[in-house]
Structures are given as structure tokens and as C-alpha cells.
Amino acid sequence: MERDIEQSKIYCRQHPGNSEALIHLVHELRSLGRSNEIRDVLQFEPVHIPLAWRLLGKLAPARFAKDGSVLNMRRLAKLFRRPINRSLAIMDQARLRAELALGLLGDQNEFLRLLEVKRTTQDRLLRCLGMSSAPVRYMGNYWVHKIGHLGQIEFYFRPWKLGLLTSARPVILIRTVQEVANKPLLDYWRQHFEVIIDPLEFERRALEAGLLDIDIHVYESADPDRPSLFYKVADALAWQRWDAEHRGPALTIDPAHEQAGRAALEALGVPREAWFATFHVREPGFAGDTGPGPRNASIENYLPAMREIVARGGHVVRLGNPAMKPLPDIPGVLDLAHSAGRSEELDLYVLAACRLFVGMASGPAQVPHLFGVPTVYTNWIPIPDYPFHGNALLIHKTHRDKATGCRLPYQRFVGLHTDYQNKDESIVFEENTPEEIRDVVIELLDRLDGRAVQDFAEDERRQQQFRDLAGISSATGRPRLGRTFLESNADLLETGR
Predict the structure, then answer these.
(1) Are 29 and 37 in contact (CB under 8 A)?
(2) How far apart are CA 365 and CA 33, in angstroms?
(3) CA dist., res. 467 & res. 71, Å (int)
(4) Which residues fall within 8 angstroms of residue 27, CB to CB, at 6 or more apart?
(5) Of all residues in the chain, what percent carry a pLDDT higher than 90?
(6) Average pLDDT, stretch 318-344?
(7) How many CA atoms lie within 13 A of 268 on its CB side?
(8) Based on C-alpha coordinates, what's the Rg of the chain?
(9) What distance in Å separates the CA atoms of residue 71 and residue 24, rounded to the nearest whole number?
(10) How many helices (H) does the chain have, and how many strands (E)?
(11) Within 13 A of 382's CA, how many CA atoms are on the CB side?
(12) Which end of the chain is more exposed for a tag (fewer CB within 10 A), N or C?
């Protein structure tokens, strides 16, 4: 076994572009509990472009058309075939290794380091080709193939709009509409970006789009002293300025979409004049997970909150798909996940036009705040992915030590980056109780209804203590923890446990 592993390491060093061999090796090391060796295997450096190629780039630089595309891309592809192919391979490998570092180790620092390798390689290649001044940058399939990624376009939009990123114009370039998770939401982004869905144009621009690709996690900064910006840093800076300048939501609902959405809901039993709340609760079956999973939750725990909304005169729309567990028959609750009236347009409408959204760390939760909808985040995990906008309340899953059964204090888990699988098998994640979910929904409803919700000094102290432990700046208007939830878990704020 040991000899096989050492031979695999040698092979991966000699063949750094063999992704299948790399993935097999790191999974084998993880199964043996040898995480430190995984970090060594994932090590990677940016491309080095020899001086001769850089000098040639000055003699034959890129030229740009009015639409921003590269006029002489074919010629550049022939002249610079070797550095282009080498750089693109390194960019792909750096991205793969970054995802492995985060996905298998939960190591965000290594994730960022490897993404910086990708950005540095991209920057060196663009400089060599004279493409650094290209008037456009491209968003490809990765930005649109999930509804959550379509929502995350906002992460780029705000800092770009505020001048924190390169001034190059973002273009969303897709081969076919079938690649898009929610076409109506993509159409909304036409308010700000050019969107091209055309197989011929996609083929024509394929190479330059790969060279000028906008990574979903690390951006090209406008600051020459800080050439790259991690998306969380960029978004935090952007939200702070956005709020200070009193700018509105990123997107506004179209009147025709509003009219069609209300008519569709009315046909499904929601009165035209009624206000409604939208719920989305992630269940097993998404992204390949079949078990409970850290990011999944039980819809049954949300029923008391739904009944509370109905008792206050509202309606509830449950968003999802037919594979999800059906809801019991509750007056005032529409299980859209199992309705024949489901459509992409209606799914987007109930996210964009609801009075409040109740969800968790799932794709649809990235959408409501684009339209300014107040949000309750429940069963949140992980804390490092804490949302940026302040028009929200949040409660998280309980983290419990598997060996002792004790709840972990905040200082033990606020930095854990748990994704679709639990990286730390010594920790058990417990869902929010029905009472916790109902209480935080009541708190947001009271705030929206203008009822007296006094933020006592003790609650403010606890909120700030949590932010300090989690490294969350209060200046960026981040969601508050649910008041009752934080009070019940005040002991988790203690340090030194």
C-alpha cells in the first residue's frame, strides 16, 4: 500500500495535468487520515512565461473589435500556442486543486492560495498577449448552471459597479439556453450585463473567453497594489459602500412578471391581494448527497412557522421540486414543489415578490435579497459563509462533540468551513427545532409589522460578541442572529471552554 502511494505521488508530480490520478491519490490519502500529505500533493506554482514570449507579445499584441472581442485571436492562438496551452492547463489544475483543498480538507487558506495561483497565471498570460486591456471579461457556464450561482452574480456586480474591480465590461457567454438553471433570472441580469446565448458566437469566442474568464471566487481588482480580491472580501467592501450610499436592490421585478406571477398564484389558490412568504428547505438528493448531510433539513420542523404566517393573515408558498417530501394539507399553504403549475417564471416570482423568504444555505436563498426581500436564514452552515446583507435574521445548526455529546462553543466552530460533506467526523450537526424556527420567523414578522421589537443592551452585547468571535464586521450590515435563539445559546459565547 505504502509503495503504491509513493509511486502515485511521483506520477502526479511528473504528470501534473492528470486530474484523474490526482483525485484518486488525494481520496486515498484522505481515507487513510493523512491530511498533511494531501496539502503537499496539492502544492502548485503559477506559470513562468519566458522572456522571449513576452518580447514577442509586445511585437504582436492583441487587437480588439468594437464588441470587445479579440480581432486577431486566431493569429495569437497560433503564435502563442505553447504558453497559452501551458497557462490554461495550470489555471484548470489550480482551480481543481483549490476545490479539493476546500472540499476534502475544509482548508480555506489553501483554497485561496491555489486560486491566487490561477489568477497570477491568468494575469501573466494576459500581459504576454497584450490582453490585459481587453474591454470585456467573460462569465461562462459555471455562473449559470445552478440558480445559486445565478444569484452569486451579485457578488461580482456590486464591487464592479462601485469601481472596486477591473472596469472591463462583464459579458455572460453561454452556448445554449439548456445550460441555464433559471432563464428568467438570467434575463434579469440583462439590466446590467450583456448576455450572449448563441452556439456560433460561443465557438468564435471560446478561446478568448477562457483567457478572460471571471472566476466565481477570485476577482481582478482595480487596485494595482492588490491585483486580486477574494469574493468575500470584495462583497464585504461593496456592501459597506452600497449601504452607505443608500443604493437599492440589485434587481427590480418587471411589471409584466409581477402581473403574470400574481395571476399564476391566484390560479393555484393564493388570493391576488394576499401577502405571502416563500419557504425553501434543502433535502437529500441535491449535489449527490443521499444522507441527512450538514446542509439538509427536515421540512416538518418548519410547519409551526408556516402556521404562524397563516395565522397572521398571510399565505405560504413552499418552493422545491417533486422529489421533495410532500407537505401535509394545511389551509393557506401552497406546496408549489408538487404543483402542476410549477415553472421557472413562477419559481423566480415567488422568490422575488414574497414579503419574506425563509430558507437555509441553498441555491434559492441567493435570490430573494437581489430584489430586496427580507430573509430568515435557518439551519445555517457553515459560519464562514455568513451572508453579507443586513435585511435578515439568522439561526445556525448546533455543533455537538460526537464523543462527549456537549455543544461546541462558538470559538470552536465559527471558522469551520463545512461544505456538502462533513470534513470533521468528530462533530455532529443538529437541526434547528420547530420552536427555534418559529421564534425567528415571529421576530422578523414583528419587525416588518412595526411591532415593538426592542434590541436590549444585553442582546446587542451578545450580537457583537458573536460577530467578534466569527470575525464578522458589523460595518457591513450582516444579518443579526435571532434574538431568542442567541439568548438560549448565550453560553456558547463563552471563551476558554
Answers:
(1) yes
(2) 34
(3) 50
(4) 104
(5) 66
(6) 95
(7) 25
(8) 24
(9) 41
(10) 18, 14
(11) 21
(12) N
Domains located in the chain, CATH noted? 135-245 (no CATH), 255-493 (3.40.50.2000)
Mean pLDDT of 426-452: 92
pLDDT digits (tens, 9 = 90+) for 251-279: 999 999 999 999 999 999 999 999 999 99
Euclidean distance between CA atoms 135 and 70, whole angstroms: 10
| pLDDT tens-place string over residues 288-307 | 555 567 889 999 999 999 99
Decide: 372 and 248 in contact? Cβ < 8 Å.
yes
Element (DSSP H or E) covering residue 437: helix 434-448
Could you tell me the end-to-end alpha-carbon distance of the chain, in angstroms, rounded to an integer?
40
Judged by DSSP in three states, 372 sits in coil
**128 and 83 Cβ atoms separated by less than 8 Å:** yes
Alpha-carbon span 196 to 94, nearest angstrom:
27
Convert 171-210 to b/e letters by CB count within 10 Å (16 or more is b): bbbbbeeeebbbebbbebbeeebebbbeeebbeebebbbb
Q: Please check whether residue 94 is in contact with residue 117, taking contact to mean a CB–CB distance below 8 angstroms.
A: yes
| pTM score | 0.91
Going by pLDDT thresholds of 50, 70 and 90, the confidence category of residue 243 is confident
